[in-house]
Amino acid sequence: MVGAGGIGCELLKTLALSGFEDIHIIDMDTIEVSNLNRQFLFRQSHVGQSKAKVARDAVLRFRPHISITSYHANVKDPDFNVDFFKQFNVVLNGLDNLDARRHVNRLCLASDVPLVESGTTGFLGQVTVHVKGKTECYECQPKPTPKTYPVCTITSTPSKFVHCIVWAKDLLFAKLFGDKNQENDLNARSSNAASSSQQAEDVFERQNDEGIDEYAKRIYDHVFGYNIGVALSNEETWKNRNRPKPLYSRDVFPEEPSQQNGNMDKNCATDDPLSVSAMASLGLKNPQDIWSLLENSRIFLEALKLFFGKREKEIGNLSFDKDDQLAVEFVTAAANIRAASFGIPLHSLFEAKGIAGNIVHAVATTNAVIAGLIVIEAIKVLQRDANNYRMTYCLEHPSRKMLLMPVEPFEPNKSCYVCSETPLLLEVNTHRSKLRDFVEKIVKAKLGMNCPLIMHGPALLYEVGDDLDKDMAANYAANLEKVLSELPSPVTGGTMLTVEDLQQEFTCNINIKHREEFDEEKEPDGMLLSGWTQAPRVEKDDNKTVGNGGSSTSNASSAMPVEAEEDDDIEFVPTGKKRKVGEISKATNPNLSDVADDDVLVMLDGENLDINKKKKLQ
Amino acid sequence: MDGEELTEQETALYDRQIRVWGVDAQRRLSKAHILVSGMKGTVVEFCKNIVLAGVGSLTLVDSREVTEEALSANFLIPPDENVYSGKTLAELCCDSLKDFNPMVRVSVEKGDISSFGGDFYDRFDVVVISSCSFATKKLINEKCRKVSKRIAFYTVDCRDSCGEIYVDLQNYTYSKHLRPGSSGKGFGWVYGRKFTYLLEHYCIGDVLKGLPGKSWGYGKELDFPKKLDETDECQLQYPSFEEAVTIPWRALPKKVTKLYLAMRVIERFEEAEGRNPGEISIADLPGVLKLKKELCEAQSFNESHVPDALLERLVSDTSEFPPVCAILGGILGQEVIKAISGKGDP
């Protein structure tokens, strides 16, 4: 089992009750309070401890004689290699991110061990079966990647609240409290700016003798007032859009400076930095309330002050953490003020936290149902009952009286680059793009390899490893900085590169095609990979640069559109051209004839289900 | 709407589920009182789910002693004689369930469920019974219906990998969607297409509702909704347990699952033979098939609609299959939560 969280707890319990006696479980996380509403093997007293270990102990209490081996580790660790996976008859996933799922998928293919995948979000869930050579692998069908937004939408023309959140979190918060050396688009403009970059830098730095109140107001006025004013000066941008309103503190706050100071005493009581809160300071108790512009502005200033007043040491090293109350308050307030400026509806802290933290809503019941289904499929896999493997989808409301919808798995996708080893095509300017760009943006990001090895014929251009000798390491470092056409073994149009991840035992061939020009907006990376069936969910401008998701974005539901934004109409259904694994007929399957008769019994209709047609961009 | 806020502790603990059903529903849950009888695998799963959900109180009834079978699908009871000896199933489950959520009051009511008087049921909002005879189910359903405030009544039974949940919400008004509708992170699934599917050969509990006999406000077959933002008020009228199970089979909707019919045959058989529920074996198969024939003939109902193979399966293995307990217990849990919150199609 990979994962000892929401699905994992239910799954381990059900496996144990169903008679499984040798279970290994991997999970890198520790227990948090918000887990306890559904991860029932854990108690309040376990907060902070390893999920895998505590789950194991809890289950042994009612099944003392079975063997459970727990690993408090990341499944991507090199220890969990093909030999490790080969020990098992079946692998069951209860993960919450796409990255790890892809990794496990490859290892299961390499070790030829069947994989049962699953995911849940709220009332929705699904279970899918993947057997090498017989069914699709997990990556045969494109999976929705975390939503990303064009930079200009975030920096200049937000139209949804989530844009404001991303601005507040990834730009403003990062600029004020994060690593100063990081590139930051906060002052980026869609047109040419007059100010020099040096000047822009100084704005956010607190001056030596600057009082905290002064500093806070200055920042407020700069980002909500001045910057908006500058943006408005570019007429072109606003021709077809609603103009934002610049907001200055002198206009927002009533003329009572003394009342604006929050009660810092409330925060003096404890030295614990994590319990410092602007809400507490200002007496705003309910996270479900939607604050007014004035209240949001108060929170903004108060939070800023508290960071500098009580948590100064952390400034410069902070990254947004959804469990950091003050950070959440700051981001909520900042996002709301920006939203007010742009005429976007404001949101409560509760809602903002969910968006900023990519929180997956979850209940115990769905996980219990999915776990039951996983065990049922696992048993079929062990019995090699291939005709009865099912992908099962758990709906919120029954459709045609079916709450759980079983679908037969499809045959492997012949153009899947993972399990069918189809070569890919990369269009790139070989005189401009460096090897480093290729490694980071293509091999790691798009292809999901962790520890890649890149070869051009017999020449090894790059590899990752702990035991590289100094000369080789230096050679690779040098290669990274070279443009492709100037590598020791030059990469030009017509070249074929072989990319491998030894741990995943996954190889991919990439044909290179030279291209001079790339669209800066649409292809900002200057590279285009095709023959690769991933379907990015991108808004409007097709520009993938700023995302809301972190590395642990949950990607619960793979084949179902779990998060449908208001205007999206993305349908995610299997492509009809494929064939089923094993056709069902009454003659060959006696069990089915019990129920067949007049009950609804129809095969999945392929005609209307074409994934490529369905994506509707705004 | 009461003005009581959730405590900080509740907000932290229930954060993830509040994001699913909203603060209002969570508040209602915390005031709900549930009665459960018959602590077998499926019911145990159900109890876990609603305790985690944060109901006000849970009262357990089951004065049976621990047996091998009782332990087989029950993760609440440690298989240690030193621990379980001398205690009833209800007592043992109670001890464990308390741990899952200290904010829920879990207690045991001693005695036989069929002996409790009508006013006993007064204090409950939801009653779930299992592992009891047809007569007992009928009796308790009647008592619940007599109570002036509405009690949501459920029975659940699981045999092998088949199961059945019966729902009686009497006269029930609810708002159609459970989700707190909010702009921003709108949650809803969008399926523009009807697609057909394959029926599993294992029957995953069919919820009995929509049976003719009384007038229905809800007759429309659920289509794939495009957007889940509206909150229409809907009303349903449920038949009593007795009415529901005595509907002539010919009058049932065409697509009723065969499992429903098979369960009715088994139910009648156990009743006629004076058996405890589940006290049946493969040796009884001839008797069961004979009864099926008689029942079908009496109703002029085509015998082949109740497959012999299915009946054989149901009498051969009466112990519960843990994955199905999890599935049924999960579905039942969700139904009860919807009924308490008054949101979401039952």
Automatic annotation (TrEMBL), chain A:
<dbReference type="InterPro" id="IPR019572">
    <property type="entry name" value="UBA_E1_SCCH"/>
</dbReference>
<keyword id="KW-0862">Zinc</keyword>
<dbReference type="GO" id="GO:0019948">
    <property type="term" value="F:SUMO activating enzyme activity"/>
</dbReference>
<feature type="binding site">
    <location>
        <begin position="96"/>
        <end position="101"/>
    </location>
    <ligand>
        <name>ATP</name>
    </ligand>
</feature>
<feature type="binding site">
    <location>
        <position position="137"/>
    </location>
    <ligand>
        <name>Zn(2+)</name>
    </ligand>
</feature>
<comment type="subunit">
    <text>Heterodimer.</text>
</comment>
<dbReference type="GO" id="GO:0031510">
    <property type="term" value="C:SUMO activating enzyme complex"/>
</dbReference>
<dbReference type="GO" id="GO:0016740">
    <property type="term" value="F:transferase activity"/>
</dbReference>
<dbReference type="InterPro" id="IPR035985">
    <property type="entry name" value="Ubiquitin-activating_enz"/>
</dbReference>
<dbReference type="Pfam" id="PF14732">
    <property type="entry name" value="UAE_UbL"/>
</dbReference>
<feature type="binding site">
    <location>
        <position position="419"/>
    </location>
    <ligand>
        <name>Zn(2+)</name>
    </ligand>
</feature>
<dbReference type="GO" id="GO:0046872">
    <property type="term" value="F:metal ion binding"/>
</dbReference>
<protein>
    <recommendedName>
        <fullName>SUMO-activating enzyme subunit</fullName>
    </recommendedName>
</protein>
<comment type="similarity">
    <text>Belongs to the ubiquitin-activating E1 family.</text>
</comment>
<feature type="domain" description="Ubiquitin/SUMO-activating enzyme ubiquitin-like">
    <location>
        <begin position="426"/>
        <end position="518"/>
    </location>
</feature>
<dbReference type="Pfam" id="PF10585">
    <property type="entry name" value="UBA_E1_SCCH"/>
</dbReference>
<keyword id="KW-0547">Nucleotide-binding</keyword>
<dbReference type="InterPro" id="IPR028077">
    <property type="entry name" value="UAE_UbL_dom"/>
</dbReference>
<keyword id="KW-0808">Transferase</keyword>
<keyword id="KW-0833">Ubl conjugation pathway</keyword>
<feature type="binding site">
    <location>
        <position position="51"/>
    </location>
    <ligand>
        <name>ATP</name>
    </ligand>
</feature>
<feature type="region of interest" description="Disordered">
    <location>
        <begin position="536"/>
        <end position="576"/>
    </location>
</feature>
Automatic annotation (TrEMBL), chain B:
<dbReference type="InterPro" id="IPR045886">
    <property type="entry name" value="ThiF/MoeB/HesA"/>
</dbReference>
<dbReference type="GO" id="GO:0008641">
    <property type="term" value="F:ubiquitin-like modifier activating enzyme activity"/>
</dbReference>
<dbReference type="Pfam" id="PF00899">
    <property type="entry name" value="ThiF"/>
</dbReference>
<dbReference type="InterPro" id="IPR035985">
    <property type="entry name" value="Ubiquitin-activating_enz"/>
</dbReference>
<protein>
    <submittedName>
        <fullName>SUMO-activating enzyme subunit 1A</fullName>
    </submittedName>
</protein>
<dbReference type="InterPro" id="IPR000594">
    <property type="entry name" value="ThiF_NAD_FAD-bd"/>
</dbReference>
<feature type="domain" description="THIF-type NAD/FAD binding fold">
    <location>
        <begin position="14"/>
        <end position="345"/>
    </location>
</feature>
